[in-house]
Amino acid sequence: LAFCQLDTLERLLAMARRVGAWTGPGDQRLWLMILGHVRCLNEGTLGSLAHLEIGSLDGAMRRRICGLRDEYERALRHMIAAAMDEGTLRQGDPKMAALAILGATNWTALWYRPEGRVSARAVGRAFADHLVRGLLPDGATLRILEPAQEALLDGDDEW
After folding, report:
1. How sure is the predictor about 119, in pLDDT bands with cuts at 50, 70 and 90?
2. What is the pLDDT of residues 101-117, one digit of tens each?
3. Does the first or last residue of the chain, that is N or C, have fewer Cβ atoms within 10 Å of its Cβ?
């Protein structure tokens, strides 16, 4: 249980650092972050669903896992706030937006099946489209990323 949580969170944080370092527009950074999150949970460590079971841990390991989880959430909130500041996302509460995104993306670990009709990448793209569109300013359209930009997710991590 601890391994699944640590491995998943370390890969999520590595992905967040790569996406956060990219200088593209904030809405596209968020799109990549959502896609990367879904891929990490569903193409990564078998049993990544266990990363949702923090309540099953206690003591020092629970504190460590919670610290990493909070660090990841802060990175996501910061990315959302920066995009709001630059105007690529509408103004709102970055924490609520982050929690909505995490609630939706984390739940994929419960129902996604690798042997199903769609890939984790396709699920991630669909979630990114829906979730980012909901945060765009009125009248704005989602700019689709080029495959080369999506390759930012394919760093040193093995999904």
Report:
1. very high
2. 999 999 998 899 989 99
3. N
